[in-house]
Amino acid sequence: MRDIQLLTRAFVDLADTLVDDFDVIDLLMVLSHRCVESLDVDEAGVMLTDGDGNLRVAAASSERARLLELFELQNDEGPCLDSFRRGEPVASSDLRDPAGPWPRFAREALDSGFRSAHALPMRLRGQVIGALNLFSTQPLQLPDEDERVAQAFADIATIAVLQEWQLREQVRVAGQLQAALDSRVVIEQAKGVIAERHNLDMEVAFTTLRQAARNSNRRLSDLAREVVLSRGHINLA
Question: Are 44 and 136 in contact (CB under 8 A)?
């Protein structure tokens, strides 16, 4: 029977990383090490997609696992890639099988001391953001119970990573909105400066400012800021 204490520790450790401003890489490193401790595997690693949809090595329980994952990416062949692309678990219980799905990867894995490999998708509904790699030095068909536990680990990490990405995007959008609002304030100030200095109404002052920005190929907000700082002592012709 599976060691309940190990599983409890694994889930607690994963939960402990999910604090404010948590580090995604720290979370994935914890995930890879807890997989090794809790499952009948020798090494684990995680790949995540970047903004262009390409996988990148994000974490590994050892240097040899990291190097094998890099080999997988460089040669565009292996369990993690297939799991990511299909959105489903994939496995080779014995990498010595000549009919195996990844001949180049299998040779490299065997040279690294591994005999079997499994990969599970990091997915939420229809979105797949990466995959969890599990390596064993012995021929191994991962038991259903182990696969369910590994998928649970991957699911926790997936939800955490997606939440972090969403928060980051919200911060970025909020920053853009705030910058736009700040720019609008500066433009209104510049309109007032121009209107007062040249005895113009506000609409004409804005037209003057906008035309000057176009003529000089400058951003409206940048020119407005210069107008305000110079108190209107700037050539807008």
Answer: no
Q: In which region does residue 201 sit, left (phi positive, over 0), alpha (psi from -120 to 50) or beta (all else)?
A: beta
CB atoms within 10 A of CB 58: 24
Residue ranges of domains in the chain: 4-165, 179-230
Quote the CA–CA distance of 127 and 192 in Å, as a whole number: 50
CB 157 within 8 A of CB 31: yes
Query: Could you tell me the fold of the domain covering 179-230?
Result: Arc Repressor Mutant, subunit A (1.10.10)
Asked if the domains at 4-165 and 179-230 fall in one CATH topology, the answer is no
Q: What is the largest CA-CA distance in the chain?
A: 87
The topology under which CATH files domain 4-165 is: Beta-Lactamase (3.30.450)
Q: Which residues of 149-163 are buried (b: 16+ CB within 10 A; e: fewer)?
A: bbbebbbbbbebbee
CB atoms within 10 A of CB 233: 10
What pTM did the predictor assign?
Answer: 0.68
Instruction: Give the sheet arrangement for strand 116-124, strand by strand.
Output: 55-60, 43-49, 127-136, 116-124, 90-92
pLDDT in tens, 89-137: 999 999 999 999 999 999 999 999 999 999 999 998 888 989 999 999 9
8-state DSSP, 42: S
Tens digits of residue pLDDT in 8-20: 555 555 555 555 5
Q: What whole-number distance in Å separates Cα of residue 99 and Cα of residue 36?
A: 28
Give the count of beta carbons closer than 10 Å to the beta carbon of residue 104: 14
